Amino acid sequence: MSSADIMGYAAGALTAFTFLPQVVKTWREKAAKEVSLYMFIIAFVNEILWLTYGVMINNWVIMVTNIIMLFMSAIMILLKLKYNHR
Amino acid sequence: MSSADIMGYAAGALTAFTFLPQVVKTWREKAAKEVSLYMFIIAFVNEILWLTYGVMINNWVIMVTNIIMLFMSAIMILLKLKYNHR
Q1: Which residue from B18, B37, B53 is facing A8, i.e. has the nearest CB?
Q2: Radius of gyration (C-alpha) of chain A in whole angstroms
Q3: Orientation angle between helical segments A37-56 and B3-15, nearest 10 degrees
Q4: How far apart are CA B46 and CA A72, in angstroms?
Q5: Among all residues of chain A, which has the CA nearest to that of B29?
Q6: ∠A14-A9-B42 over CA atoms, to 5°?
Q7: What is the ipTM, given to two decimal places?
Q8: Residue in B74, B45, B16 with CA at minimum distance from that of residue A15
Q9: How many CA atoms lie within 13 Å of B69's alpha carbon, on the beta-carbon side?
Q10: Interface list for A 39-58 with B (CB within 8 A)
Q11: More confident: A80 or A5
Q12: For B4-34, b where at least 16 C-beta lie within 10 A, e where not — what string?
């Protein structure tokens, strides 16, 4: 594995958990009025594109990363809709 | 260009603007208490990794995407710190 490969895998692994702090924060505080719904809708649609790309080029790192992000984005969209009024 | 390439470029182009709705919303509403600082710190660090990876493999799509995201994340970190109290 080249040093570029290692950098790519490290970047991909970290990307998968970008949304986790927001999910945890909103889950705990039950307030999401200031969080952008569109950010997570764009992310959700985008992750479907990335997942399709991952399947097309048969790249498991892209597939797994985007399945995790798709799941986190879906949770955030639900949390946003639930706690939008506070 | 293959259909996989087109899918990859479309996904990359959309990724670059994921944070834009949050930047615009926070800029307008001047409130960011409910937005996670850690999400954007993780994103910022992650984009430096991706940018380094892009430079290492000489991939302009990865470089340009992550320069845009780095810029958006930096703005969101500043907006969060400025409007955290409201």
Answers
A1: B53
A2: 15
A3: 160
A4: 17
A5: A34
A6: 15
A7: 0.90
A8: B45
A9: 30
A10: 39, 42-43, 45-46, 49-50, 52-53, 56-57
A11: A80
A12: beebbeebbebbbbbbbbbbebbeeeebbeb
Q: Do A22 and B43 touch (CB under 8 A)?
A: no
The backbone torsions φ and ψ at residue B19, rounded to the nearest 5 degrees and listed phi first, read -85, -10
| Residue B86: predicted pLDDT | 58
Res. A29: pLDDT tops 90: yes
Question: Quick one: pLDDT band at residue B60, thresholds 50, 70, 90?
Answer: confident
Q: Across residues A20-49, what is the average pLDDT?
A: 97
Handedness of CA B21, B24, B30, B36 (dihedral sign): positive
Which band of pLDDT confidence, cut at 50, 70 and 90, is reported for residue B85? confident
Task: Give the pLDDT of residue A86.
Answer: 57
Query: For tokens 């950010």, what's the residue?
Result: A39
Prediction pTM value: 0.91
Instruction: For residue B29, name the pLDDT band (cuts at 50, 70, 90).
Output: very high
CA distance to partner chain A, nearest, from residue B68 (Å)? 15
Domains of chain A, residue spans: 3-82
Domain A3-82, CATH class in plain words: mainly alpha
Residues near A71 by Cβ (< 8 Å), separated by ≥ 6? Answer: none
